[in-house]
Design goal:
2 domains, elongated, 3 helices, mainly alpha
Length: about 100
C-alpha cells in the first residue's frame, strides 16, 4: 500500500508538473508544437528552467525556515506517534524519549 501510494504521488506530481510547464509555455510564451524553435519559445524554456525553478526553491526555503524541525521536535513526534499506536493496539509500547 505504501509503495502504491508513493508511486501514485510521484506520477501525479510528474503529470501536474508537466502540465503546469506547458500551461506556462502556452500562456506566456505562445508555445506551438508545430514550431517549437522560435526565439520566444526558447526564451520561455530558459525562463522556466531558471527563474521559475529559482522562485519555487525560494518558496520552499521560506516554508522550511518557518517550519522549525529539529531533533527535539522529531523525537517528540516519534514519541507521540508511538503513544498513539500503543493506545490503538495494546501490544505496542511507546518509544522511550532520548
Amino acid at each position: 500500500m505504501a509503495f502504491a501510494t508513493m508511486g501514485f504521488a510521484l506520477k501525479s506530481g510528474l503529470g501536474l508538473g508537466s502540465s503546469a510547464f506547458l500551461w506556462i509555455m502556452v500562456t506566456f510564451f505562445h508555445y506551438d508544437a508545430g514550431s517549437p524553435d522560435t526565439a520566444q519559445v526558447l526564451e520561455g524554456f530558459r525562463t522556466c528552467s531558471g527563474l521559475v525553478v529559482g522562485v519555487l526553491f525560494t518558496i520552499c526555503t521560506l516554508l522550511l525556515s518557518i517550519y522549525k524541525l529539529n531533533k527535539r521536535t522529531t523525537l517528540e513526534m516519534a514519541h507521540e506517534l508511538s503513544a498513539r499506536c500503543a493506545r490503538a493496539d495494546g501490544s505496542i509500547t511507546p518509544m522511550q524519549s532520548a
